[in-house]
Amino acid sequence: MASLTVRQLDDKLKKQLRLRAARHGRSVEDEVRTILRAAAVDADAFGGPEPSLPSDARQPTPRHRP
């Protein structure tokens, strides 16, 4: 299984996650897994599917050296 580290998480959000997890009788880690699983299944939960980019926008932009 993969691991994911989330840095620079706002203290207020961390507290909200902890309280939500407690309401559901889960650990914070399990609560976050549940939220991510639901978001991955339901694209509308977070604003719908990602917009498709034009094919030229998917190419890496070359960097010019000074």
Describe this structure in words.
- The chain is mainly alpha-helical and 66 residues long.
- It has helices at 11-23, 28-41.
- The chain has a domain at 10-39.
- It has 2 helices and no strands.
- The longest helix is centred in the middle third of the chain and has 14 residues, at 28-41.
- The model has no long low-confidence stretch (mean pLDDT 81).
List keywords for this structure.
single chain; 66 residues; mainly alpha; 2 helices; 0% strand
Strand-helix topology:
Blueprint: H1 11-23, H2 28-41
Helix pairs in contact: 1-2
**What is the overall silhouette?**
extended
Indicate the low-confidence ranges by residue numbers: none
Rg on CA atoms, Å: 18 Å
Mean pLDDT: 81
Alpha-beta content class: mainly alpha
Q: What is the succession of H and E elements?
A: HH
How much strand content do the residues show? under 5%
Q: In total, how many beta strands?
A: 0
